[in-house]
Specification:
heterodimer, A: mainly alpha, 10 helices, B: alpha/beta, 2 domains, four-stranded antiparallel beta sheet, 14 strands
Amino acid sequence: MKGFYSLLYKEVVRFWKVGFQTVLSPLLSTMLYLLIFSHVLGDHVEAFPGVAYVSFLIPGLAMMALLQNAFANSSSSLIQSKITGNIIFLLLSPVSYPEIFLAYVLASTIRGVLVGCGIFLITLWAVDIPLKFPLWALVFALLGSFILGATGIVAGIWAEKFDQLASFQNFIIVPLTFLSGVFYSIHSLPPFWQEVSHLNPFFYLIDGFRYGFFGVSDISPYFSLLVVSICLAAVSLFTLGLLKSGYKLRN
Amino acid sequence: MNPAIAIHQASKRFGSLKAVDCVDLEIAQGEFFALLGPNGAGKTTLINLLSGLSRPDSGKLAIMGFDVSREYRKARRSVGVVPQELVFDPFFTVREVLEVQSGYFGISGNAAWIDEILARLDLSSKADTNMRALSGGMKRRVLVAQALVHKPPVIILDEPTAGVDVELRQALWEFIRSLNASGHTIVLTTHYLEEAEALCNRIAMLKAGKIVALDTTSNLLKSCKARHVKLQISPDSLPDALLPGFIGRESGYHVLKLDEFSDLESILETLRQSGARITDMVLPHPDLEAVFVEIMRTP
Protein backbone atom coordinates (compact mmCIF):
# COMPACT_ATOMS: atom_id res chain seq x y z
CA MET A 1 0.00 0.00 0.00
CA LYS A 2 3.02 2.30 0.34
CA GLY A 3 3.04 2.76 -3.44
CA PHE A 4 -0.60 3.84 -3.33
CA TYR A 5 0.04 6.35 -0.53
CA SER A 6 3.04 7.78 -2.38
CA LEU A 7 1.06 8.27 -5.58
CA LEU A 8 -1.85 9.79 -3.64
CA TYR A 9 0.55 12.12 -1.81
CA LYS A 10 2.21 13.11 -5.09
CA GLU A 11 -1.13 13.83 -6.76
CA VAL A 12 -2.40 15.95 -3.85
CA VAL A 13 0.87 17.89 -3.56
CA ARG A 14 0.84 18.41 -7.33
CA PHE A 15 -2.49 20.25 -7.35
CA TRP A 16 -1.79 22.00 -4.04
CA LYS A 17 1.45 23.48 -5.42
CA VAL A 18 -0.61 25.24 -8.10
CA GLY A 19 -3.49 26.02 -5.74
CA PHE A 20 -4.24 29.38 -7.35
CA GLN A 21 -5.14 27.58 -10.54
CA THR A 22 -6.65 24.41 -9.11
CA VAL A 23 -8.56 25.65 -6.04
CA LEU A 24 -8.84 29.46 -5.89
CA SER A 25 -9.62 29.98 -9.57
CA PRO A 26 -12.68 27.65 -9.61
CA LEU A 27 -13.84 29.24 -6.35
CA LEU A 28 -13.72 32.67 -7.95
CA SER A 29 -15.47 31.65 -11.18
CA THR A 30 -18.22 29.85 -9.22
CA MET A 31 -18.76 32.89 -7.04
CA LEU A 32 -19.15 34.97 -10.21
CA TYR A 33 -21.81 32.54 -11.48
CA LEU A 34 -23.58 32.87 -8.15
CA LEU A 35 -23.41 36.64 -8.13
CA ILE A 36 -24.72 37.04 -11.67
CA PHE A 37 -27.42 34.36 -11.68
CA SER A 38 -28.77 35.21 -8.25
CA HIS A 39 -28.85 38.90 -9.14
CA VAL A 40 -30.57 38.40 -12.48
CA LEU A 41 -32.96 35.58 -11.57
CA GLY A 42 -33.22 35.81 -7.81
CA ASP A 43 -36.52 37.70 -7.75
CA HIS A 44 -38.15 35.81 -10.63
CA VAL A 45 -37.55 32.13 -9.97
CA GLU A 46 -38.62 29.83 -7.16
CA ALA A 47 -37.26 26.37 -7.98
CA PHE A 48 -38.50 24.63 -4.82
CA PRO A 49 -41.50 25.89 -2.79
CA GLY A 50 -40.32 28.16 -0.01
CA VAL A 51 -36.65 28.02 -1.05
CA ALA A 52 -35.00 31.24 -2.28
CA TYR A 53 -33.38 30.90 -5.70
CA VAL A 54 -29.96 31.86 -4.40
CA SER A 55 -30.19 29.14 -1.73
CA PHE A 56 -31.31 26.64 -4.39
CA LEU A 57 -28.42 27.67 -6.63
CA ILE A 58 -25.56 27.30 -4.15
CA PRO A 59 -25.60 23.48 -3.71
CA GLY A 60 -25.94 23.08 -7.49
CA LEU A 61 -22.97 25.35 -8.15
CA ALA A 62 -20.93 23.67 -5.43
CA MET A 63 -21.63 20.26 -6.95
CA MET A 64 -20.89 21.51 -10.48
CA ALA A 65 -17.52 22.88 -9.36
CA LEU A 66 -16.80 19.70 -7.43
CA LEU A 67 -17.52 17.50 -10.46
CA GLN A 68 -15.54 19.63 -12.90
CA ASN A 69 -12.54 19.87 -10.60
CA ALA A 70 -12.52 16.17 -9.80
CA PHE A 71 -12.48 15.48 -13.54
CA ALA A 72 -9.82 18.13 -14.20
CA ASN A 73 -7.49 16.75 -11.54
CA SER A 74 -7.00 13.21 -12.78
CA SER A 75 -7.30 14.04 -16.47
CA SER A 76 -4.84 16.95 -16.48
CA SER A 77 -2.33 15.15 -14.28
CA LEU A 78 -2.35 12.08 -16.52
CA ILE A 79 -2.08 13.92 -19.79
CA GLN A 80 0.72 16.14 -18.47
CA SER A 81 2.59 13.06 -17.31
CA LYS A 82 2.05 11.38 -20.66
CA ILE A 83 3.09 14.38 -22.74
CA THR A 84 6.15 15.25 -20.65
CA GLY A 85 6.98 11.54 -20.41
CA ASN A 86 7.28 11.38 -16.62
CA ILE A 87 4.46 8.80 -16.46
CA ILE A 88 7.34 6.37 -17.07
CA PHE A 89 8.38 6.63 -13.39
CA LEU A 90 5.02 5.28 -12.30
CA LEU A 91 4.89 2.64 -15.03
CA LEU A 92 8.36 1.35 -14.13
CA SER A 93 7.31 0.92 -10.51
CA PRO A 94 5.56 -2.07 -8.93
CA VAL A 95 2.46 0.02 -8.09
CA SER A 96 -0.52 -2.09 -9.22
CA TYR A 97 -3.27 -0.83 -11.51
CA PRO A 98 -5.97 -0.86 -8.76
CA GLU A 99 -3.63 1.24 -6.59
CA ILE A 100 -3.09 3.67 -9.48
CA PHE A 101 -6.87 3.89 -9.96
CA LEU A 102 -7.56 4.49 -6.27
CA ALA A 103 -4.81 7.08 -5.86
CA TYR A 104 -5.93 9.17 -8.85
CA VAL A 105 -9.61 8.93 -7.87
CA LEU A 106 -8.95 9.88 -4.23
CA ALA A 107 -6.72 12.82 -5.17
CA SER A 108 -9.49 14.02 -7.50
CA THR A 109 -12.00 13.59 -4.68
CA ILE A 110 -9.87 15.65 -2.31
CA ARG A 111 -9.61 18.50 -4.82
CA GLY A 112 -13.30 18.30 -5.76
CA VAL A 113 -14.50 18.25 -2.16
CA LEU A 114 -12.07 21.05 -1.25
CA VAL A 115 -13.51 23.31 -3.96
CA GLY A 116 -17.10 22.31 -3.12
CA CYS A 117 -16.60 22.96 0.60
CA GLY A 118 -14.87 26.26 -0.20
CA ILE A 119 -17.92 27.47 -2.11
CA PHE A 120 -20.24 26.38 0.65
CA LEU A 121 -18.12 28.07 3.33
CA ILE A 122 -17.75 31.35 1.41
CA THR A 123 -21.50 31.62 0.86
CA LEU A 124 -22.37 30.59 4.41
CA TRP A 125 -21.93 34.10 5.80
CA ALA A 126 -24.23 35.73 3.24
CA VAL A 127 -26.91 33.15 2.47
CA ASP A 128 -28.97 31.02 4.82
CA ILE A 129 -28.74 27.45 3.50
CA PRO A 130 -30.20 24.60 5.49
CA LEU A 131 -28.32 21.30 5.65
CA LYS A 132 -31.16 18.95 6.55
CA PHE A 133 -29.50 15.64 5.71
CA PRO A 134 -25.71 16.18 5.71
CA LEU A 135 -25.01 12.48 5.20
CA TRP A 136 -26.96 12.45 1.94
CA ALA A 137 -25.06 15.53 0.76
CA LEU A 138 -21.74 13.94 1.72
CA VAL A 139 -22.56 10.63 0.01
CA PHE A 140 -23.49 12.33 -3.27
CA ALA A 141 -20.45 14.62 -3.09
CA LEU A 142 -18.16 11.62 -2.65
CA LEU A 143 -19.87 9.52 -5.31
CA GLY A 144 -19.76 12.44 -7.76
CA SER A 145 -16.05 12.94 -7.11
CA PHE A 146 -15.33 9.23 -7.56
CA ILE A 147 -17.23 9.08 -10.86
CA LEU A 148 -15.61 12.19 -12.30
CA GLY A 149 -12.17 11.26 -10.96
CA ALA A 150 -12.45 7.91 -12.74
CA THR A 151 -13.83 9.57 -15.90
CA GLY A 152 -10.83 11.91 -15.78
CA ILE A 153 -8.52 8.89 -15.80
CA VAL A 154 -10.29 7.57 -18.91
CA ALA A 155 -9.99 10.96 -20.64
CA GLY A 156 -6.35 11.36 -19.58
CA ILE A 157 -5.48 7.92 -20.94
CA TRP A 158 -7.44 8.36 -24.16
CA ALA A 159 -6.31 11.90 -25.05
CA GLU A 160 -2.96 12.22 -26.79
CA LYS A 161 -2.86 16.01 -26.74
CA PHE A 162 -4.32 18.81 -24.66
CA ASP A 163 -6.68 19.70 -27.51
CA GLN A 164 -8.38 16.29 -27.29
CA LEU A 165 -8.71 16.57 -23.53
CA ALA A 166 -10.22 20.06 -23.88
CA SER A 167 -12.75 18.62 -26.36
CA PHE A 168 -13.69 15.89 -23.88
CA GLN A 169 -14.18 18.53 -21.19
CA ASN A 170 -15.97 21.13 -23.33
CA PHE A 171 -18.20 18.81 -25.36
CA ILE A 172 -19.07 16.21 -22.73
CA ILE A 173 -18.39 17.24 -19.14
CA VAL A 174 -19.43 20.92 -19.27
CA PRO A 175 -22.73 20.34 -21.20
CA LEU A 176 -23.66 17.44 -18.92
CA THR A 177 -23.09 19.57 -15.80
CA PHE A 178 -24.82 22.68 -17.16
CA LEU A 179 -27.84 20.65 -18.31
CA SER A 180 -28.20 18.70 -15.10
CA GLY A 181 -30.34 21.12 -13.12
CA VAL A 182 -27.60 23.23 -11.56
CA PHE A 183 -29.46 26.44 -12.39
CA TYR A 184 -33.05 25.17 -12.43
CA SER A 185 -35.41 22.46 -11.28
CA ILE A 186 -36.15 20.10 -14.15
CA HIS A 187 -39.86 20.49 -13.35
CA SER A 188 -39.61 23.92 -14.93
CA LEU A 189 -38.68 22.27 -18.26
CA PRO A 190 -41.08 21.05 -20.97
CA PRO A 191 -41.91 17.30 -20.60
CA PHE A 192 -39.59 16.27 -23.46
CA TRP A 193 -36.56 17.97 -21.88
CA GLN A 194 -37.49 16.55 -18.49
CA GLU A 195 -37.24 13.08 -20.04
CA VAL A 196 -33.91 13.97 -21.67
CA SER A 197 -32.62 15.20 -18.30
CA HIS A 198 -33.33 11.79 -16.82
CA LEU A 199 -30.72 10.35 -19.20
CA ASN A 200 -28.06 12.63 -17.74
CA PRO A 201 -26.27 10.93 -14.82
CA PHE A 202 -25.13 14.31 -13.51
CA PHE A 203 -28.76 15.22 -12.89
CA TYR A 204 -29.04 12.46 -10.27
CA LEU A 205 -25.84 13.64 -8.59
CA ILE A 206 -27.00 17.21 -8.29
CA ASP A 207 -30.59 16.37 -7.37
CA GLY A 208 -29.48 13.93 -4.68
CA PHE A 209 -26.89 16.39 -3.37
CA ARG A 210 -29.54 19.12 -3.17
CA TYR A 211 -31.83 16.76 -1.27
CA GLY A 212 -29.20 16.69 1.47
CA PHE A 213 -29.61 20.45 1.86
CA PHE A 214 -33.34 21.03 1.50
CA GLY A 215 -34.95 17.64 2.04
CA VAL A 216 -36.68 18.28 -1.30
CA SER A 217 -35.71 16.89 -4.69
CA ASP A 218 -37.05 16.44 -8.19
CA ILE A 219 -36.96 12.65 -7.82
CA SER A 220 -36.48 10.16 -4.99
CA PRO A 221 -32.93 10.40 -3.53
CA TYR A 222 -32.92 6.60 -3.22
CA PHE A 223 -33.44 6.25 -6.95
CA SER A 224 -30.70 8.83 -7.55
CA LEU A 225 -28.39 6.87 -5.26
CA LEU A 226 -29.11 3.70 -7.24
CA VAL A 227 -28.42 5.34 -10.60
CA VAL A 228 -25.25 7.02 -9.34
CA SER A 229 -23.98 3.80 -7.77
CA ILE A 230 -24.53 1.91 -11.03
CA CYS A 231 -22.71 4.67 -12.93
CA LEU A 232 -19.80 4.52 -10.49
CA ALA A 233 -19.53 0.75 -10.81
CA ALA A 234 -19.63 0.95 -14.62
CA VAL A 235 -17.06 3.76 -14.89
CA SER A 236 -14.79 2.10 -12.33
CA LEU A 237 -14.86 -1.27 -14.07
CA PHE A 238 -14.18 0.36 -17.43
CA THR A 239 -11.29 2.44 -16.03
CA LEU A 240 -9.76 -0.53 -14.24
CA GLY A 241 -10.00 -2.50 -17.48
CA LEU A 242 -8.17 0.25 -19.35
CA LEU A 243 -5.43 0.44 -16.74
CA LYS A 244 -5.06 -3.33 -16.64
CA SER A 245 -4.78 -3.59 -20.42
CA GLY A 246 -2.15 -0.84 -20.52
CA TYR A 247 -4.14 0.89 -23.30
CA LYS A 248 -2.11 3.87 -24.58
CA LEU A 249 0.19 3.56 -21.56
CA ARG A 250 2.28 0.45 -21.98
CA ASN A 251 3.03 0.50 -25.70
CA MET B 1 21.71 -18.93 -9.43
CA ASN B 2 19.05 -17.25 -11.59
CA PRO B 3 20.36 -15.17 -14.46
CA ALA B 4 19.95 -11.42 -13.98
CA ILE B 5 18.06 -11.30 -17.26
CA ALA B 6 16.55 -14.16 -19.22
CA ILE B 7 14.82 -13.55 -22.53
CA HIS B 8 13.31 -16.44 -24.46
CA GLN B 9 11.93 -16.02 -27.97
CA ALA B 10 10.70 -12.47 -27.29
CA SER B 11 9.01 -10.70 -30.17
CA LYS B 12 7.34 -7.32 -30.50
CA ARG B 13 5.78 -5.91 -33.61
CA PHE B 14 4.58 -2.35 -34.33
CA GLY B 15 2.30 -2.66 -37.37
CA SER B 16 4.42 -4.22 -40.10
CA LEU B 17 7.70 -3.47 -38.27
CA LYS B 18 9.27 -6.30 -36.31
CA ALA B 19 10.96 -4.24 -33.59
CA VAL B 20 12.12 -7.32 -31.66
CA ASP B 21 12.24 -10.61 -33.53
CA CYS B 22 12.51 -13.90 -31.61
CA VAL B 23 15.29 -12.71 -29.31
CA ASP B 24 16.99 -15.19 -26.95
CA LEU B 25 19.40 -13.69 -24.44
CA GLU B 26 20.71 -14.50 -21.00
CA ILE B 27 22.75 -12.12 -18.88
CA ALA B 28 24.39 -13.50 -15.75
CA GLN B 29 24.38 -11.72 -12.40
CA GLY B 30 27.30 -9.32 -12.01
CA GLU B 31 27.91 -8.81 -15.73
CA PHE B 32 28.58 -5.42 -17.32
CA PHE B 33 26.73 -5.99 -20.56
CA ALA B 34 26.31 -3.81 -23.65
CA LEU B 35 23.40 -3.89 -26.05
CA LEU B 36 24.57 -2.24 -29.26
CA GLY B 37 22.95 -1.54 -32.58
CA PRO B 38 22.08 1.24 -35.01
CA ASN B 39 19.04 3.47 -34.46
CA GLY B 40 15.85 1.43 -34.81
CA ALA B 41 17.61 -1.89 -34.15
CA GLY B 42 15.24 -2.68 -31.26
CA LYS B 43 17.43 -1.90 -28.23
CA THR B 44 14.96 0.43 -26.50
CA THR B 45 12.01 -1.84 -27.37
CA LEU B 46 13.83 -4.76 -25.75
CA ILE B 47 14.47 -2.64 -22.65
CA ASN B 48 10.81 -1.59 -22.61
CA LEU B 49 9.75 -5.25 -22.74
CA LEU B 50 12.03 -6.03 -19.80
CA SER B 51 10.89 -3.09 -17.72
CA GLY B 52 7.17 -3.54 -18.38
CA LEU B 53 6.77 -0.33 -20.38
CA SER B 54 5.69 -2.47 -23.29
CA ARG B 55 4.25 -5.96 -23.53
CA PRO B 56 5.67 -8.66 -25.78
CA ASP B 57 3.58 -10.22 -28.54
CA SER B 58 5.20 -13.55 -27.70
CA GLY B 59 8.03 -14.99 -25.66
CA LYS B 60 9.06 -14.84 -22.02
CA LEU B 61 11.19 -12.35 -20.16
CA ALA B 62 12.42 -12.60 -16.58
CA ILE B 63 14.51 -10.44 -14.28
CA MET B 64 16.33 -12.23 -11.44
CA GLY B 65 14.08 -15.19 -12.13
CA PHE B 66 10.83 -13.19 -11.88
CA ASP B 67 8.58 -13.23 -14.93
CA VAL B 68 8.01 -9.61 -16.01
CA SER B 69 4.28 -10.25 -16.63
CA ARG B 70 3.18 -12.75 -13.99
CA GLU B 71 5.49 -11.53 -11.20
CA TYR B 72 5.71 -7.94 -12.33
CA ARG B 73 5.97 -6.49 -8.83
CA LYS B 74 9.03 -8.59 -7.94
CA ALA B 75 10.52 -8.14 -11.41
CA ARG B 76 10.18 -4.34 -11.27
CA ARG B 77 11.64 -4.22 -7.75
CA SER B 78 14.67 -6.02 -9.17
CA VAL B 79 15.44 -3.54 -11.92
CA GLY B 80 16.21 0.17 -12.19
CA VAL B 81 15.90 1.76 -15.61
CA VAL B 82 17.51 5.01 -16.72
CA PRO B 83 15.40 6.04 -19.72
CA GLN B 84 16.84 7.49 -22.88
CA GLU B 85 14.55 10.53 -22.95
CA LEU B 86 15.29 13.40 -20.60
CA VAL B 87 11.97 13.29 -18.72
CA PHE B 88 11.16 14.94 -15.40
CA ASP B 89 8.26 16.05 -13.23
CA PRO B 90 8.17 19.86 -13.21
CA PHE B 91 6.16 20.11 -9.99
CA PHE B 92 8.76 18.73 -7.62
CA THR B 93 12.23 19.23 -6.22
CA VAL B 94 14.98 16.65 -6.67
CA ARG B 95 14.51 15.28 -3.14
CA GLU B 96 10.72 15.13 -3.48
CA VAL B 97 11.07 13.21 -6.74
CA LEU B 98 13.36 10.65 -5.07
CA GLU B 99 11.12 10.32 -2.01
CA VAL B 100 8.03 9.73 -4.15
CA GLN B 101 9.95 7.24 -6.30
CA SER B 102 11.08 5.39 -3.14
CA GLY B 103 7.46 5.25 -2.03
CA TYR B 104 6.40 3.70 -5.35
CA PHE B 105 8.77 0.85 -4.52
CA GLY B 106 7.31 0.48 -1.03
CA ILE B 107 10.28 2.07 0.73
CA SER B 108 9.85 4.61 3.51
CA GLY B 109 12.61 6.27 5.53
CA ASN B 110 14.98 6.20 2.56
CA ALA B 111 16.65 9.54 3.39
CA ALA B 112 20.11 8.11 4.13
CA TRP B 113 20.34 6.25 0.81
CA ILE B 114 18.88 9.24 -1.07
CA ASP B 115 21.55 11.47 0.51
CA GLU B 116 24.23 9.00 -0.52
CA ILE B 117 23.06 8.81 -4.13
CA LEU B 118 22.81 12.60 -4.30
CA ALA B 119 26.36 12.90 -2.99
CA ARG B 120 27.73 10.25 -5.36
CA LEU B 121 26.07 11.98 -8.32
CA ASP B 122 27.20 15.43 -7.15
CA LEU B 123 23.59 16.58 -6.71
CA SER B 124 23.59 17.34 -2.96
CA SER B 125 23.56 21.11 -3.51
CA LYS B 126 20.53 20.74 -5.81
CA ALA B 127 18.47 18.50 -3.52
CA ASP B 128 15.87 21.19 -2.83
CA THR B 129 15.90 22.70 -6.32
CA ASN B 130 12.89 22.31 -8.58
CA MET B 131 13.52 19.94 -11.49
CA ARG B 132 12.72 22.70 -13.99
CA ALA B 133 15.68 24.74 -12.78
CA LEU B 134 18.27 22.01 -13.47
CA SER B 135 20.56 21.82 -16.50
CA GLY B 136 20.25 18.91 -18.93
CA GLY B 137 23.24 17.12 -17.38
CA MET B 138 21.79 17.44 -13.90
CA LYS B 139 18.41 16.16 -15.03
CA ARG B 140 20.24 13.15 -16.51
CA ARG B 141 21.89 12.54 -13.13
CA VAL B 142 18.51 12.70 -11.39
CA LEU B 143 17.26 10.03 -13.81
CA VAL B 144 20.15 7.82 -12.69
CA ALA B 145 19.32 8.58 -9.03
CA GLN B 146 15.65 7.67 -9.61
CA ALA B 147 16.66 4.32 -11.06
CA LEU B 148 18.75 3.57 -7.96
CA VAL B 149 16.43 4.61 -5.10
CA HIS B 150 15.28 1.04 -4.49
CA LYS B 151 18.81 -0.46 -4.75
CA PRO B 152 17.93 -2.77 -7.65
CA PRO B 153 20.26 -5.70 -8.37
CA VAL B 154 19.90 -5.03 -12.13
CA ILE B 155 20.45 -1.57 -13.60
CA ILE B 156 19.58 -0.82 -17.23
CA LEU B 157 20.96 2.37 -18.74
CA ASP B 158 19.53 3.38 -22.11
CA GLU B 159 22.07 5.76 -23.63
CA PRO B 160 22.81 7.48 -20.33
CA THR B 161 25.63 9.64 -21.68
CA ALA B 162 23.85 11.05 -24.74
CA GLY B 163 24.49 14.80 -24.74
CA VAL B 164 26.47 14.67 -21.49
CA ASP B 165 29.78 16.52 -21.11
CA VAL B 166 33.04 14.61 -20.69
CA GLU B 167 33.51 15.39 -17.00
CA LEU B 168 30.05 14.15 -16.05
CA ARG B 169 30.39 11.15 -18.32
CA GLN B 170 33.56 10.06 -16.54
CA ALA B 171 32.04 10.65 -13.09
CA LEU B 172 28.94 8.70 -14.10
CA TRP B 173 30.96 5.74 -15.37
CA GLU B 174 33.08 5.72 -12.24
CA PHE B 175 29.88 5.49 -10.18
CA ILE B 176 28.36 2.77 -12.39
CA ARG B 177 31.64 0.81 -12.30
CA SER B 178 31.60 0.91 -8.49
CA LEU B 179 27.99 -0.36 -8.52
CA ASN B 180 29.04 -3.21 -10.81
CA ALA B 181 31.99 -3.96 -8.54
CA SER B 182 29.61 -4.24 -5.60
CA GLY B 183 27.57 -6.89 -7.43
CA HIS B 184 24.99 -4.98 -9.48
CA THR B 185 24.37 -6.25 -12.99
CA ILE B 186 24.68 -3.43 -15.51
CA VAL B 187 23.06 -3.43 -18.94
CA LEU B 188 24.00 -0.54 -21.14
CA THR B 189 23.04 0.78 -24.55
CA THR B 190 25.21 3.45 -26.07
CA HIS B 191 26.30 4.89 -29.39
CA TYR B 192 29.72 5.63 -27.89
CA LEU B 193 31.35 2.31 -28.79
CA GLU B 194 34.61 3.13 -27.03
CA GLU B 195 32.59 3.32 -23.79
CA ALA B 196 31.15 -0.13 -24.36
CA GLU B 197 34.59 -1.50 -25.27
CA ALA B 198 36.17 -0.06 -22.14
CA LEU B 199 33.41 -0.96 -19.68
CA CYS B 200 31.59 -4.09 -20.77
CA ASN B 201 32.70 -7.69 -20.45
CA ARG B 202 30.09 -8.98 -22.93
CA ILE B 203 28.27 -7.46 -25.85
CA ALA B 204 25.19 -8.21 -27.93
CA MET B 205 24.65 -6.48 -31.25
CA LEU B 206 21.14 -6.03 -32.55
CA LYS B 207 20.12 -5.46 -36.12
CA ALA B 208 16.50 -5.18 -37.32
CA GLY B 209 15.25 -6.68 -34.07
CA LYS B 210 17.54 -9.73 -34.12
CA ILE B 211 20.73 -10.47 -32.22
CA VAL B 212 23.46 -10.73 -34.87
CA ALA B 213 26.45 -10.99 -32.52
CA LEU B 214 26.80 -12.09 -28.93
CA ASP B 215 30.16 -12.70 -27.32
CA THR B 216 32.72 -11.39 -24.87
CA THR B 217 34.26 -8.06 -25.81
CA SER B 218 37.70 -9.64 -26.33
CA ASN B 219 36.34 -12.40 -28.59
CA LEU B 220 34.45 -9.89 -30.69
CA LEU B 221 37.61 -7.81 -31.11
CA LYS B 222 39.60 -10.92 -32.07
CA SER B 223 36.95 -11.91 -34.61
CA CYS B 224 37.37 -8.71 -36.61
CA LYS B 225 38.56 -9.38 -40.14
CA ALA B 226 38.73 -5.71 -41.04
CA ARG B 227 42.46 -5.19 -40.42
CA HIS B 228 44.68 -2.71 -42.17
CA VAL B 229 48.23 -1.41 -42.19
CA LYS B 230 49.31 2.23 -42.39
CA LEU B 231 52.53 2.91 -44.30
CA GLN B 232 54.67 5.99 -44.88
CA ILE B 233 57.00 5.40 -47.85
CA SER B 234 59.65 7.22 -49.85
CA PRO B 235 59.14 8.07 -52.61
CA ASP B 236 55.53 8.78 -51.62
CA SER B 237 53.90 6.77 -54.36
CA LEU B 238 52.40 3.26 -54.15
CA PRO B 239 53.40 0.66 -56.72
CA ASP B 240 50.51 -0.27 -59.09
CA ALA B 241 50.51 -3.82 -57.74
CA LEU B 242 49.30 -2.57 -54.33
CA LEU B 243 46.47 -0.39 -55.64
CA PRO B 244 43.75 -3.12 -55.36
CA GLY B 245 44.25 -3.17 -51.55
CA PHE B 246 44.53 0.61 -51.17
CA ILE B 247 41.85 2.02 -48.80
CA GLY B 248 42.90 5.68 -48.72
CA ARG B 249 45.27 8.30 -47.31
CA GLU B 250 45.28 9.24 -43.62
CA SER B 251 47.63 11.88 -42.16
CA GLY B 252 50.35 11.18 -44.72
CA TYR B 253 49.99 7.38 -44.47
CA HIS B 254 48.84 5.01 -47.19
CA VAL B 255 46.19 2.75 -45.67
CA LEU B 256 46.17 -0.77 -47.10
CA LYS B 257 43.70 -3.57 -46.43
CA LEU B 258 44.92 -6.80 -44.81
CA ASP B 259 42.81 -9.91 -45.25
CA GLU B 260 45.34 -11.89 -43.24
CA PHE B 261 48.42 -10.83 -41.29
CA SER B 262 50.49 -12.89 -43.77
CA ASP B 263 49.46 -10.40 -46.51
CA LEU B 264 51.96 -8.05 -44.88
CA GLU B 265 54.88 -10.10 -46.25
CA SER B 266 53.80 -9.72 -49.88
CA ILE B 267 53.16 -5.96 -49.39
CA LEU B 268 56.67 -5.46 -48.02
CA GLU B 269 58.14 -7.60 -50.85
CA THR B 270 56.30 -5.55 -53.50
CA LEU B 271 57.57 -2.30 -51.95
CA ARG B 272 61.14 -3.65 -51.82
CA GLN B 273 61.01 -4.70 -55.47
CA SER B 274 59.70 -1.29 -56.52
CA GLY B 275 62.57 0.43 -54.68
CA ALA B 276 60.31 2.19 -52.16
CA ARG B 277 61.68 2.67 -48.64
CA ILE B 278 59.36 2.39 -45.60
CA THR B 279 59.78 5.39 -43.29
CA ASP B 280 57.02 4.47 -40.82
CA MET B 281 54.53 1.67 -40.34
CA VAL B 282 51.53 1.36 -38.01
CA LEU B 283 49.54 -1.82 -37.48
CA PRO B 284 46.45 -0.66 -35.58
CA HIS B 285 44.46 -3.08 -33.43
CA PRO B 286 40.82 -3.37 -34.51
CA ASP B 287 38.47 -1.52 -32.19
CA LEU B 288 34.82 -2.17 -31.40
CA GLU B 289 33.76 0.37 -34.00
CA ALA B 290 35.49 -1.68 -36.73
CA VAL B 291 33.81 -4.85 -35.41
CA PHE B 292 30.44 -3.08 -35.28
CA VAL B 293 30.73 -1.74 -38.82
CA GLU B 294 31.80 -5.14 -40.13
CA ILE B 295 28.91 -6.95 -38.45
CA MET B 296 26.32 -4.38 -39.48
CA ARG B 297 27.53 -4.53 -43.11
CA THR B 298 27.10 -8.29 -43.22
CA PRO B 299 23.80 -8.96 -45.00
